[in-house]
Design a protein that fits this description.
- There is one protein chain.
- The protein has about 400 residues and is mainly alpha-helical.
- The protein is about 85% helix and about 0% strand.
- The chain has 17 helices and no strands.
- Helix 3 (about 55-65) packs antiparallel against helix 15 (about 335-360).
């Protein structure tokens, strides 16, 4: 298929390129989430309230979604290695400007621009990795997606630790340097990857209208992302309220979730090419079961640990499945389809947190978890209803 038509480099060079793309995701994800751990010192340093400071996370996420299809289309003739390097330059410069910004307005504007770069990475990064090792595409996708788990488990706590030793501006300065190093790694390790399947903007937005399989996949992904983030956004207050969890225990459990996500990625990589429908259905079922367990046994540490571990595994596996499902549904327009998926994914994160918050405020924290149960269950039903052509999908996904 067109997304894999580039001749593969030697195996070692190809996997070094995949590693560089994984490192890119690591710095993008940690840059996105770093303010979560630094919100209090950032608000003090920028002379705004904590609630206002939180807009640097929200704004980043929104811009990461809404601009992606347009930027991917407008850069459709740009070599993907050059585009990724340019995105990392934006990230490095943005982190450096953030570190030295005199006021909140400059930080927010900078983060909005960085968010656009983040969204474009999601649209092109996995596709680049699968083109480098087309015979092991699912494994390459799993490796790249592990950068998200590593960023959550290692990167964000490390950034917070550095800030505790120094200050929040030092953390962003270090991340600017790290982004620059990853940019050099991409330039050295990733071969030229001319764009092969990008299409104009108007064609991007017509894809789900014309492609019923893609439309069904996007609906299913939207449902489970809404459910997951509707519940996950309020996991800390739920743990504190239901199990009187200490900050230390909560930190450990969030690390368990991240490790579970990485494990789910790699587990799904071994099963998704054999039976994509079953893998995704099991992943969605795992999300439903883990949230139900959280409600049933989440009032003590052991129950929390089991629930959160299963939740992380299921979410990691579902994320890998959705990439393969997009590829199977639109093999000749993978980047364009991923740009739409990225837009929908990020908007669903924001809506999930908003709707979960409404349930939490009006029903209680368990209401947010029940909201997650309902939406992930709907995703499970949607998967059963829309994946009847699974054998054809799996055949399309194997060569990636």
């Amino acid at each position: 298929m067109s997304s894999s038509s580039t001749a593969s480099p030697s195996s070692s060079r190809a996997w070094l390129g995949v590693a560089a793309i994984t490192a890119s995701l690591f710095v993008f994800v940690t840059t996105e989430l770093m303010p979560v751990g630094l919100l209090t010192p950032m608000s003090g340093g920028l002379a705004v309230s904590v609630g206002i400071a939180g807009m640097v996370v929200t704004g980043y996420g929104v811009s990461a979604g809404v601009g992606v299809p347009f930027i991917v289309a407008w850069t459709r003739r740009v070599d993907r290695r050059a585009l990724l390097a340019a995105l990392l330059v934006v990230l490095a410069a943005g982190n450096l400007i953030t570190a030295h910004s005199p006021d909140f307005v400059v930080v927010l504007a900078t983060r909005l621009i960085m968010g656009f770069a983040h969204g474009v990475f999601w649209a092109i990064g996995v596709s680049m990795a699968t083109r480098l090792v087309p015979d092991q595409a699912s494994r390459a996708a799993a490796v790249v997606l592990s950068g998200m788990s590593i960023g959550t488990v290692v990167g964000v706590p490390l950034g917070t630790f550095i800030a505790d030793l120094t200050d929040w501006r030092t953390t962003f300065t270090i991340w600017a340097g790290l982004s620059a190093v990853v940019c050099l790694l991409v330039a050295a390790a990733v071969p030229s990857l001319p764009s092969t399947d990008a299409i104009p903007v108007r064609e991007i937005f017509l894809l789900p209208v014309r492609n019923g399989r893609l439309r069904a996949v996007m609906i299913t992904v939207t449902l489970y992302v809404l459910g997951h983030f509707g519940a996950y956004t309020f996991i800390r207050p739920f743990m504190e309220g239901q199990a009187a969890a200490s900050p230390g225990l909560i930190t450990v459990l969030l690390i368990v979730f991240g490790v579970g996500g990485a494990a789910g990625n790699f587990a799904a990589a071994h099963t998704v090419t054999k039976n994509m429908k079953a893998t995704f259905v099991v992943s969605c079922a795992g999300l439903v079961v883990s949230l139900l367990l959280l409600l049933l046994v989440g009032n003590h540490a052991a129950g929390l640990a089991v629930s959160v571990a299963l939740w992380g595994i299921a979410f990691g596996a579902a994320n890998l499945c959705q990439v393969n499902m997009i590829l199977a549904a639109a093999p000749d327009a993978f980047e364009a389809a991923m740009s739409l998926n990225t837009m929908g994914y990020n908007i669903s994160i924001a809506l999930g947190a908003l709707l979960g918050g409404l349930f939490a405020n009006n029903v209680g924290l368990t209401g947010a978890i029940w909201f997650g149960v309902g939406l992930t269950a709907a995703a499970l039903v949607s998967a059963f209803a829309s994946m009847r052509t699974a054998p054809a999908d799996e055949a399309a996904a194997r060569p990636a």
